[in-house]
Automatic annotation (TrEMBL):
Stated family: Belongs to the thymidylate synthase ThyX family.
Keyword NADP assigned: yes
Any one Gene Ontology BP term: dTTP biosynthetic process
Protein name: Flavin-dependent thymidylate synthase
Pathway linked to the protein: Pyrimidine metabolism; dTTP biosynthesis
Native organism: Seohaeicola zhoushanensis
Length: 302
């Protein structure tokens, strides 16, 4: 996770000169402020700024009362109620701005979450670094036979070695050609054209600002076990930051989103029938074959 000398100097200077403030601060988040958390081989996530805390969520929910906190127990109970009943607006009172370094193909998945403000490193203006994501051997899998967008079994050591050599060779050759094309004493091609030759595993960077409600939506999808590994590890790192920032809200999120499932009306009815002792089968449940499999994956963990 190499930082540029300029980035490290900026971080050191910011952390060395704390500023007094009258606004609410979250001690857990203050410890993370500006510090890069390594992800993948060259990536990182770091908190640049944030606004609000658990109390801000409660204050917004109790807007007619002014100051939100009556007691710790009341605040946590209120936040759990809000999360349980899908009251999203109070969570929008908290925001966080992250500096993220990530491979381009991960960024293209990430940007699908359109409820954030993003400013990305410009390869039209600046020169991208010679840094590429190369997966570890334990993350090189075959195509899944049951999921068109997922991974299957690990490749054999021989095939894994071949893949790694291809990735490294192709990345190096592409960057060599990129440098040759933009060289001022050579071809001198415009950077906005030369960048098209770079592979999707090259690293980019951006500032990403999002409110807590939409961040929870991002984490619910991307921290899930079914998410692609390369974006999931970023989501898992962000989960750690959020848990220290808004501990009450994050615990509620774990209980009612990450660790919960959604049941259709047919699934709820099937569950009620099972509790009454009735025999419920794929044929008499009123669900499609796929829904039945998903339902049984929830109720039958044997």
């Amino acid at each position: 996770m190499p930082l540029s000398p300029e980035q490290q100097a900026e971080i050191d200077a910011l952390r060395a000169t704390p500023a007094p403030t009258l606004r609410a601060v979250a001690p857990g988040m203050e410890r993370h402020l500006y510090v890069p958390q390594p992800v993948l081989d060259h990536g990182f996530v770091r908190v640049v700024d944030y606004m609000g805390d658990d109390a801000a969520i409660c204050q917004a929910a109790r807007v007619s009362y002014g100051k939100g906190t009556k007691s710790v127990q009341n605040d946590e109970g209120l936040i759990r109620y809000l999360m349980r009943h899908w009251h999203s607006t109070p969570f929008e009172m908290c925001e966080v701005k992250l500096h993220v370094k990530l491979p381009v193909f991960v960024a293209r998945q990430w940007i699908r979450h359109r409820t954030a403000n993003v400013n990305e490193y410009s390869a039209r203006y600046s020169i991208l670094d010679r840094e590429f994501y190369i997966p570890a051997p334990e993350h090189i899998n075959s195509q899944s036979k049951v999921n068109n967008q997922g991974r299957g079994e690990l490749l054999s050591p021989e095939d894994s070695a071949r893949v790694l050599e291809m990735l490294k060779a192709d990345s190096t050759r592409a960057y060599d050609n990129y440098e040759a094309m933009i060289a001022e004493d050579g071809i001198g091609l415009a950077r906005e054209l030369a960048r098209m030759n770079l592979p999707a595993n090259v690293y980019t960077q951006w500032y990403w600002k999002v409110d807590l409600h939409n961040l929870f939506h991002f984490l619910r999808l991307r921290a899930d076990a079914h998410a692609q590994y390369e974006i999931r590890v970023y989501a898992e790192e962000i989960c750690k930051l959020v848990a220290d920032w808004v501990p009450f809200a994050y615990r509620a999120f774990e209980d009612y989103r990450l660790g919960a499932v959604t049941l259709s009306a047919q699934m709820v009815e099937a569950m009620r029938r099972m509790l009454k002792g009735e025999e419920v089968t794929a044929e008499n449940c009123g669900m499609s074959a796929r829904e039945w499999r998903e339902f049984m994956g929830v109720v039958d963990k044997s």
